[in-house]
Amino acid sequence: MTVACRGDSDIIGRGDAVSDLGTDELREILCDALDHVQRGASVLAIVADKTRDDNTALLFPIAAEILSSRAITKLDVLIAQGTHSAMSEPEKLAKIGAIRAADVPGFGRLFDHDWADPKKLISIGALDSGRVRELTGGLLTRPIELKVNRLLARGLYDTILIFGTTVPHEVAGFSGGAKYFFPGVSGPELTHASHWLSALATIERTIGRVETPTRHLFEAAADFIPAQVISLNSVVSRDHGRLRTHALFCGDLRLAFRKAAAVSRHLHIRYTGRKFRRVIALLDSHYEDLWVGGKASYRLGPVIEEGGSLLIYAPQLQTISETHGALIEKYGYAPLEVVRELVAESLDLQQNLGVAAHLTHVAFAGRRLADGSIVPRYSITLASQVNAETCRRVNLGYMDPRSFRREDYKGDPDTLIVDQAGRDLYLVDPLPD
Predict the structure, then answer these.
(1) CATH 3.90.226.30 occupies which residues in the chain?
(2) What is the pTM of this model?
């Protein structure tokens, strides 16, 4: 059933899991949503980086045209790359649907976000310890300073537009909305805290759920943003290579996100009705390292039997992580119970809790052996350009990708083969509302 929100004072948009919104429909929604931008305003658009497959290249030129007709004074773009590596100039232009900056009416400047450079960040406030405890159900208790890209300083822009998609996500439950501020364009404080929070809450109680401690933390932090915020929340999929927009909801940061998540829940979660002894994950080519390609584990982990195995086939993947590879190789992937002990003993991990969270997210969950030791619930083998020694250091098995043959696994009733792995979340049964 299509959810239509035209005329709602908080949300504008429509769509559902079977919709296929055309350009004219998207333009109509954007016209209504951007009517809230004042004439002569300065506008900053926040867009995802190349690790996110979205429809920004379609929506941004339409939005720019609409805003140009409203005689805005400035339209700049900030890439919400979080802790990911910077994109090339052609990649950034392609992300906003342009070959040259001059192709986009009224377009000004294109900015990268650098989460690790204090000179490029400003503080917009803080969540005190009591508020953090309340938002996280006691999982975190320390105050968190809210540092963001300096472009979000009061008075620089009148309106901020968030161009984002909504899919199940290991840290927030679902991507979209306030997550484009935190950790998209934030500093290390909330980035590390939120990732570790999701690990403490456990990935099984986070991914695919709307109301999570991390979501509540992100949204409370976003209340400090000193500008009008219009959130453009799309729900998309790939249909034989073609990008299909199922829904677009615009407006209030919280409400528009939840409308999109309600659609994503029916589109991006697949139910198997059973667990499998072995899962073959043919990693989506969109993922270029295991920092993001780890989605193949935590989006498939719920349907792998205890003691089972996961094979990630990713011939395009060259590295564990360009940014965090050294730390990941130093400690390796491990269940939460093990990583918590590592964090307690390691200053490295205490200062990089986002990496600590990644270690446990990829391992997904643990199981206790007869001798009391905790080991991963299932084994993971990586078939990629990452060499055998690196795989060993991070506690993964190794397979030469040239030896992989899909035919070797077809027909086995205890094996699930997943194409474009990492895109959709797999569950045995639907989660409770």
Answers:
(1) 271-427
(2) 0.89
